[in-house]
Design goal:
The complex is a heterodimer. Helix content of chain A is 73%, strand content 0%. By secondary structure, chain A is mostly helical. The longest helix of chain A has 40 residues, at 32-71. Chain A is globular, with a radius of gyration of 26 Å. In chain A, 28% of the residues are buried. Chain B is of the alpha/beta class. Chain B folds into two domains: 38-146 and 301-371, D-Maltodextrin-Binding Protein, domain 2, CATH 3.40.190.10; 149-297 and 375-413, D-Maltodextrin-Binding Protein, domain 2 (3-Layer(aba) Sandwich), CATH 3.40.190. Helices cover 45% and strands 14% of the residues of chain B. In chain B, strands 1, 2, 3, 6, 10, 11 and 12 form a seven-stranded mixed β-sheet that branches. Classes of the chains: A mainly alpha, B alpha/beta. Chain A binds chain B through residues 41, 44-45, 48-49, 51-52, 55-56, 59, 78-79, 81-83, 164, 169-170, 187, 189-190, 192, 273-276, 278-280, 292, 295-298, and chain B through 1-2, 5-6, 8-9, 12-13, 15-16, 19, 80, 83, 86-87, 104, 107-110, 194-196, 245-250, 261, 376-377, 379-380, 383, 390-391, 394-395.
């Protein structure tokens, strides 16, 4: 998404498709027709090569996307599963109902909570892990890298089993360690104030490997000459980090921020496997509420309206991030 | 270049075309007679799915012209798979249907009503049969049943000074207190404090108090004095610290039962096997007994029924297969294979069931149990019950207020 927005203005200003530029000087007017025919064949081949993708994308992505948009303006319910033609258009009714729905507002709040706390923590800890792995630790570097990245690729079900054990109020890891010191711990997942922070902690642990890997790649692309120069000029470690590392990581930062935010706005798996949205809806996220309305209760029209509301929110936040985090030096 | 590209394109276009063609597959409605050569597709859930093929092979010996093809489907995905199949017109000939799923599929209008001259209401437990009836039309034949009873630790009950199983609500409460005070257990009983499926333990209280979920016309009756009384009784176990208020999905009661932390719980017949397999050291230290009574001791019936679909071309053979599975003899055989309780009452006279003392509580409970009425919006209705329980157990909500809020939430779902 970052690429298309930054590239398209250049194309528009040059006023012609880029592939003509290289060939324009070499070929004169007489050969034009032949070239056009050749281009035609190439276009055809291009389209043909794209057919498998276009067919799959059209069937499994574009069609459902359009269908759910249409559905969000209908009262599509259980009955319409076998009798879709009796679906009735209700205009914006689903959307107006959504804004009066207290549970939906609660779900939006929970999602915002998750994003506002979770995203900076994930990115920040990912960056710290990357910087430490890049410079301080020489031995076991691969071991730590794999260690931090493993949760990203581990099935959420396995993660849930482990975290249930960690958080278990009776004989869990935390309560067990605390008991050694004579402390008592709260029942994390059953407390409506602590359930969400617990899920955030788990999500941060599970996802920080992803920004870490990207930051590591970004750190390695920072030329050592720049660092050297800053050191010669007398910069300390903190200054070097603030004035060299962070600014030069900006493109990576943008990408990581956008992807992590989108992922966290759509948060579903963590509450789905750990709390089921409870206690008392304190971990009910927008996606989970959508799933419940759509697949448990079969209010497909209503759930689709929710999906599009979330989509607009995701789009707006992404555009804002692109605007404010873009590399300002170019 | 262009030649090979074209060939490539055709190769690529073919699957896409095939996709389009299969999407508009044929649906001729030619019925196949029962004695014709045919294959019957059957979907069965959970454990049953693993074991049904054996029984199906026996059927094949009696009806060599019918081949049965059993597809096991996990309970967790059964509901969505069936709905998707209904939407795509790809339903099997016969399927097992969970008792709480009936209402939805009747609403979807895909179930073929059963022939009541072949299957008689009098043969089955009344609640199991009632569960499948909407507007006097019967849509499924009960296959196996389950019902909730009380499990309790007899060894700890001795320590607590109890001489007999609790027979009334008062005795249940007294025993829970005695467990805590005299046997030193952490909790007196394990009742779900919310979360998915919490309604399953509330329902015995509601029915025993003489209440119901809906009246004869199908309207919600959750703010009646009986319902309020049941909610009050249920909530009191949390208010008095007799039951854990912690809610965690996927939590099982066996562990706390084994350790003695929660020496009582309400659950179904599968727990008999679960306890003897997971906790062999408890052998002889626990019992399953009928539910303590208020106005009466009334539990509810779950389980599964067998259905056939309007789209099926093998309805005649499907009916033969369902008759075979629900006959008293095969039901008793099936009990031996799967330990699921027969829905056909005559099967309980079979020595294999009649001589098993552990089954007495269930048989007694089944004869009086109420049904979970077939409701098209059952999932939502059940969710409201779960929420109400959570609000009382964890939010300290007043049972009377909860009852009227529950009624308000449930009314639009039962219209």
């Amino acid at each position: 998404m970052a690429r298309t927005t930054s590239v398209s203005p250049d194309d528009a200003s040059s006023g012609q498709p880029p592939e003509i530029d290289d060939a324009a000087t070499a070929t004169g007017p007489p050969r034009r027709r032949g070239r056009r025919a050749r281009l035609g064949t190439q276009h055809l081949a291009g389209w043909l090569f794209s057919t498998p993708f276009l067919a799959l994308f059209g069937t499994f992505m574009a069609f459902p996307i359009v269908a759910s948009l249409v559905m969000s303006f209908t009262d599509f319910g259980l009955r319409n599963v076998t009798d879709p033609l009796s679906t009735e258009f209700v205009g914006l009714e689903n959307y107006t109902e959504l804004f009066g729905d207290e549970t939906f507002r609660r779900a939006l709040f929970n999602t915002a909570y998750f994003v506002v706390v979770g995203v900076p923590l994930t990115i920040g800890l990912g960056l710290v892990a990357a910087v430490l792995l890049n410079s301080s630790i020489d031995r076991f570097r691969t071991f730590f890298r794999v260690g931090f990245y493993t949760p990203v690729v581990t099935s959420i079900v396995a993660v849930a089993v482990v975290w249930r054990f960690v958080l278990d109020p009776g004989d869990g890891l935390i309560s067990g360690v605390a008991a050694e010191f004579g402390w008592t711990t709260p029942d994390f997942l059953s407390s409506s104030t602590l359930a969400m922070p617990s899920l955030i902690a788990m999500a941060v642990w599970r996802n920080l490997g992803f920004p870490m890997v990207l930051f590591l790649a970004g750190l390695q692309s920072i030329p050592s000459e720049v660092r050297e120069a800053s050191r010669i000029d007398g910069a300390g470690a903190v200054q070097e980090f603030r004035k060299i590392t962070v600014p030069l990581l900006r493109p990576t930062m943008l990408y990581v921020a956008v992807i992590t935010t989108i992922g966290y706005l759509n948060v579903f798996e963590e509450p789905f496997v750990m709390t089921g949205g409870g206690p008392a809806d304190s971990t009910l996220t927008t996606s989970l509420y959508m799933y419940r309305e759509g697949f448990d209760f079969f209010h497909m029209g209503y759930a689709s309206a929710m999906a599009y509301t979330l989509f607009v929110i995701v789009l707006a936040i992404t555009l804002l991030q692109l605007r404010f985090l873009r590399d300002k030096t170019t | 270049m262009s030649g090979s590209a074209r060939t490539f394109a055709i190769v690529c276009a073919l699957p896409a075309l095939a996709l389009v063609l299969t999407a508009c597959g044929s649906d001729s409605s030619d019925e196949v007679a029962a004695d014709d050569e045919q294959t019957l597709t059957v979907w069965a859930m959970g454990e049953e799915g693993q074991r049904l093929q054996e029984v199906a092979d026996e059927f094949n010996e009696e009806f060599p012209n019918v081949t049965i093809d059993v597809t096991p489907v996990g309970w967790d995905q059964a509901h969505q798979k069936l709905v998707a199949a209904a939407a795509g017109g790809e339903l099997p000939d016969v399927a097992q249907m969970g008792s709480t799923m009936m209402g939805e599929f009747i609403e979807l209008d895909v179930l073929e009503p059963i022939d009541t001259s072949t299957f008689s209401q009098d043969d089955f437990f009344p609640a199991a049969w009632e569960n499948n009836v909407v507007d006097d039309e019967v849509y499924a034949v009960p296959w196996y049943v389950d019902t909730r009873v009380l499990y309790y630790r007899t060894d700890l009950a001795d320590e607590a000074g109890a001489t007999h199983p609790p027979a009334t609500w008062d005795e249940l409460k007294e025993l829970a207190v005695a467990y805590q005070e005299q046997a030193g257990t952490q909790y007196g009983i394990s009742l779900p404090a919310g979360g998915e499926g919490a309604w399953q333990s509330l329902l015995p209280f509601l029915y025993s108090a003489g209440g119901s979920l809906v009246d004869d016309d199908g309207n919600a009756t959750l703010d009646t004095p009986e319902a309020t009384k049941a909610l009050e009784e249920y909530a009191s176990y949390f208010d008095e610290g007799l039951s854990n208020t912690s809610v965690q999905p996927g939590q099982t009661v066996e562990q706390d039962f084994g350790s003695g932390d929660a020496p009582m719980f309400i659950s179904g017949p599968w727990m008999v096997n679960n306890i003897s397999e997971a906790l062999p050291e408890l052998d002889g230290k626990w019992a399953a007994v009928p539910l303590p009574a208020d106005e009466a001791s009334v539990s509810w019936v779950g389980g599964a029924s067998l259905v056939t679909f309007t789209d099926s071309q093998h309805k005649a053979a499907a009916q033969e297969f369902i008759s075979f599975l629900t006959s008293p003899e095969k039901q008793a055989d099936w009990y031996e294979v799967s330990r699921s309780l027969p829905a056909n009452m005559a099967a309980w006279d079979d020595p294999r069931l009649a001589e098993d003392p552990q089954l007495n509580a269930f048989e007694e409970q089944l004869s009086t149990a109420g049904d979970v009425p077939a409701m098209s919006q059952w999932n939502e209705f059940a969710h409201e019950l779960d929420v109400a329980i959570e609000q009382m157990a964890n939010g300290g909500a007043d049972p009377t207020t909860t009852a009227s809020e529950l009624q308000a939430a449930a009314e639009p779902l039962t219209e």
